[in-house]
Amino acid sequence: MQIILGITGGIAAYKSAELARLLVNQGHRVRCILTEAGSRFITPLTLTSLTGEPCYGANPDQGEWRANPGVEHIELARWADLVAVVPATANILGKAANGLASDLLSTVLLATRAPVLWAPAMNTGMWEHPAVQANLQRLRSFGHAVVEPGEGVLACGEEGAGKLADVAAIAEAIQVHGTPKLASLAGRRVLITAGPTREDLDPVRTLTNRSTGSMGIELARAFRDAGAQVRLVLGGDLPSPWGVETMRVRSAQQMLEACTAHWADSDGLVAAAAVADQRPEASSSEKVKKADGTETLALVRTPDILATLAANRRSDQWVVGFAAESEKHLEHAGDKLRRKGLDAVLVNDVQAGRGFGAQVNTLTPLTVQGPHPALGPLPKDQLARAVVQWWAGRLEAGKG
């Protein structure tokens, strides 16, 4: 992606250097535009060194404009796949909301037809001022995206809303809004389960499995980036993706309840969670003490979330499951596909612990027509995108 990074005058401008470097490391081309106020906080040399691209706008050595000012703003506006303003001050928000073009950045914002993303940062009083909120609302009405600031101790010493959002979250938002959408998934409501469930024996001990939830989280990101409206039901401890509605759960019963609450208004399900198949017949509210002699733990089955949802689906809903198998992979996965009435199963070889926690994995799609070419081995973020591309193709062909 070709990204214009606009940097305005605020103490958070130093974080734009970190963002620029992160975006470059992700494979994007980044060109920075500094406002005059922004150039007092960070230098063009720093940004050029980090991006390997020219830095435009205010420059102590060259002034505001380059040698060809008549077309520079148009060239940059056309070059960009996305324009992000980080940090965005109240001043630049007001300019853009009202169509003012008094410097290079505001002129590019007026000329571009690329998606625009804002990451505001300012004092709490300024952030909460009705004029700033009205300007943000108007920018949203233009189709612009806003990464809301967080709360914390601000540079002025006050505490409250206005702190620049986390750089990683801004980078993720840029990825979301700059990625082309897939027609067969745009606007579709996708329910995704991810992570392990945990069944408590007592306040200290629990039954669980080796799943981290990373594959399901990457699938949530990939479906989100493709244009789907994603709801994620997440077990485990990993942070949820930016921009994805997430319901945190612990047990299989909680996961079933969360899924059931949202299944009726979903178009499809991707069940990537590693649900514990058993739970203790009884759990203790106090830590169970050691005892001499043989100890017996009675287990009962947890609810079959995937089978329950598949059995209660409409004809226009689709269901994709996962099968973590250590032997006879396709045979066991095929049995799961038929027994639970699924549209597809993604087969994961977990022999010797492979697949759990690993950053590189392989999945083999299986449908009633038989196995499809394996996806991978790929890093999980790329593997998730490959899964989404494969499934979007199935939906496009009317086979979902």
Structural commentary:
The chain is globular. The longest helix has 17 residues, at 380-396. Helix 1 crosses helix 8 and helix 9 (214-225) packs across helix 13 (380-396). The protein is an alpha/beta fold. It has 13 helices and 21 strands. It has two domains: 2-178, Flavin prenyltransferase-like (Rossmann fold, 3-Layer(aba) Sandwich), CATH 3.40.50.1950; 189-396, CoaB-like (Rossmann fold), CATH 3.40.50.10300. The strands form five sheets. Strands 9, 12, 13, 14, 17, 18, 19, 20 and 21 form a nine-stranded mixed sheet that branches. Strands 3-2-1-4-5-6 form a six-stranded parallel sheet, with helices on both faces. The model has no long low-confidence stretch (mean pLDDT 91). A hairpin with a 5-residue loop joins strand 7 (150-153) and strand 8.
In terms of topology, how is this protein built?
Elements: E1 2-7, H1 14-25, E2 29-34, H2 44-51, E3 55-57, H3 69-79, E4 82-88, H4 90-97, H5 104-111, E5 116-120, H6 124-127, H7 130-141, E6 145-146, E7 150-153, E8 159-163, H8 167-178, E9 189-194, E10 199-200, E11 206-207, H9 214-225, E12 229-234, E13 245-248, H10 252-263, E14 268-271, E15 278-280, E16 299-301, H11 305-311, E17 318-325, H12 329-340, E18 344-349, E19 360-367, E20 370-371, E21 375-379, H13 380-396
Parallel strand pairs: 1-2, 1-4, 2-3, 4-5, 5-6, 9-12, 9-14, 12-13, 14-17, 17-18
Antiparallel strand pairs: 7-8, 10-11, 15-16, 18-19, 19-20, 19-21
Helix pairs in contact: 1-2, 1-8, 3-5, 4-7, 9-13
SS element count, helices: 13
Strand content: 15-25%
Poorly predicted residue ranges: none
Instruction: Report how far the terminal alpha carbons are from each other.
Output: 30 Å
Shape: globular
CATH topology (level 3) name of the largest domain: Rossmann fold
Integer count of domains: 2
Task: Summarize the amount of helix as a percent range.
Answer: 25-40%
CATH class of the largest domain: Alpha Beta
Quick one: CATH superfamily of the largest domain?
Answer: CoaB-like
- The pLDDT mean sits at 91
Structural class: alpha/beta
Characterize the biggest β-sheet.
9 strands, mixed
Radius of gyration: 25 Å
CATH architecture of the largest domain: 3-Layer(aba) Sandwich
Number of strands: 21
